[in-house]
């Protein structure tokens, strides 16, 4: 909800989601939305086959993943940190497609 309005988003347009305290920022191809929700609630609403959590405060779209480094990834030309907590999960996930 934005300004207490429901907005329909195409999940294919979302390339990353990150948190800022009690808000999430949804980055799409055309805009950036700030929504009063928790990361847990947004994880329940998105298709986990297309999105992966790489940090306590970052979820990325696998459809927009460009490269994977040792401690970061690049999504839509933005470098995103990968925390130790999620690194093994990300590596395991990517290894399935090699």
Automatic annotation (TrEMBL):
Coiled coil: none annotated. Pfam families: LytTR. InterPro entries: LytTR_DNA-bd_dom. It comes from the Bacteria. Residues 1-68 form the HTH LytTR-type domain. One of its GO terms (molecular function) is DNA binding. This is LytTR family transcriptional regulator. The lineage of its organism: Bacteria, Pseudomonadati, Bacteroidota, Flavobacteriia, Flavobacteriales.
């Amino acid at each position: 909800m934005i300004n207490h309005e429901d907005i329909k988003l195409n999940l294919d347009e979302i390339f990353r989601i990150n948190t800022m305290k009690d808000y999430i920022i949804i980055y799409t191809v055309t805009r950036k939305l700030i929504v009063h929700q928790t990361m847990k609630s947004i994880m329940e609403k998105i298709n986990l086959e297309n999105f992966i959590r790489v940090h306590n405060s970052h979820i990325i779209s696998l459809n927009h993943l460009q490269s994977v480094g040792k401690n970061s990834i690049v999504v839509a030309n933005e470098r995103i940190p990968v925390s130790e907590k999620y690194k093994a999960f990300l590596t395991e996930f990517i290894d399935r497609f090699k």
